[in-house]
Amino acid sequence: MTLLIAINEDCPNNSKQLIYIRARSEALSLFTLPTIYIMHPLSVDTCRIIISMLKNGDSCHQIVARLGVGHSTVAELHSQITGSLKENPGGRPSKLSTYDRRKLVRLITTGKADTAIQLKHELQTITNITVSAQTICNALKTEDLVARAKVKKPLLCLHHIKQRLDFDYKYQHWTEADWARVIWSDETKINCLTSDGRQWMWKRAGTPLTAQHVMPTMKFGGGSVMVWGCMTMYGVGLMCRIEGKMDASLYEEILEDELQETVDYYGMDREDLIFQQDNDPKHTSKRAQKWFQDNGFKVLDWPAQSPDLNPIEHLWSILKFRLAAYSTPPSSIEELWKRVEAEWEKIPKEECLKLINSMPRRVASQNGHISTTA
To answer: Which residues sit opposite 188 in a β-bridge?
Structure first.
């Protein structure tokens, strides 16, 4: 058998049809195979148009319908440049443009707005665009912004800021050894219930609350005790319970008893040590100042509104955290006071020394908070 091939040049659409002729010994039979199209190369201009349409987000079907080119041709070009194209996320187009998102970020960074609700109203006023607060939150997340609770800091007036800056400038070169000479003091209130320390628990998502998941509360904390305490590089000092309201006279008694006994207990040199206290009126009264002069105590010039500088504040947090670890609340104020005394004595010397050694960093990080009022 002999197989001959002929080409039909008269086919439409610029294609050529192949005709196979099978020759036998006595006769010839003709049969036609499916039409085969011969691809012609695309012009440079057509390729550029296709690429431009792809980058604009047009689909392959839209480009084929508009330009009349083959679908496989467009798909091939799409696969070649797919690395430079942003994948279409699908869904409804965003109501916020790139300009709108930049405006939101600018409002946040300049302090003109803090919350999504505020941004929603500002955006509606400026651009007349109405969107939900959730849309605002989603847009801020795409700009690498995250929501965080504001850190509570003392409100500083201009003269408070000047005092803080003067304090930092004066003690900026003090070392850990210098701060170790200081006796740190403060008062704090400890509640009988719902102590200031946090309590944590684990539960399965969606399960109801049980008794073990609840921290009972009472009005005014179910009673409380007010205490005075001090801290040294050698460990915690003596603590006392304050009955009633503390005035200058009671404060003088605390200095005479608890402070003096702390100094004697650790064998500290009065001529070398420095006493720290805040600027409460009873601390700066003439009666207290006279006591310090008569007993040879140097007092650290402490700036007003500066509890964040005092390392003993963190010691109170440690104490209250220990109290919150009890499985049952105290049955009375007296039991609470016994727990306070017991846990205060358990605080190790290393904890106090670590807090005192943080003072150079506290002074150096002064510019972390600026909040002023007229």
So the answer is: 227
Distance CA 317, CA 320 (A): 5
**pLDDT tens digits along 270-322:** 889 999 999 999 999 999 999 999 999 999 999 988 888 899 999 999 999 89
Tell me the pLDDT tens digit for each residue of 10-39. Answer: 444 444 444 444 444 444 444 444 444 455
What is the SS3 string spanning 130-155? CCCHHHHHHHHHHCCCCCCCCCCCCC
* Residue 260, token pair as written in the block: 């003096």
Token reading at 2:
């002999």
Beta strands 224-232 and 235-236, pairing class? antiparallel
Phi, psi (degrees; rounded to nearest 5) at 41: -60, 140
**Global pTM?**
0.60
> Measured between alpha carbons, how far is residue 4 from residues 18, 28, 36, 293 in Å?
10, 10, 18, 125
Q: What fold does the segment set 158-200+216-368 form as a domain? A: Nucleotidyltransferase; domain 5 (3.30.420)
Start-to-end CA distance of the chain, whole Å, equals 109
Q: Output the pLDDT for position 67.
A: 85
Assigned token pair, 46: 């057509």
278 CB-near residues (< 8 Å, 6+ apart): 186, 302, 304, 306, 307, 310
In 10 A of CB 329, how many CB atoms?
Answer: 19
Q: Which region, left, alpha or beta, applies to residue 128 given φ > 0 means left and ψ of -120 to 50 means alpha?
A: left
Q: Are 142 and 101 in contact (CB under 8 A)?
A: yes
Q: HSE on the CB side for 248, CA within 13 Å?
A: 13
Instruction: Give the torsion sign (CA, 344, 345, 350, 352).
Output: positive
Please name the amino acid found at residue 192.
C
Q: What is the pLDDT of residues 171-229, one digit of tens each?
A: 999 999 999 999 999 999 998 875 554 556 666 677 777 766 666 666 555 688 999 99
Q: CA-CA distance, 47 to 324, in Å (whole number)?
A: 72
One-letter identity of residue 262: T
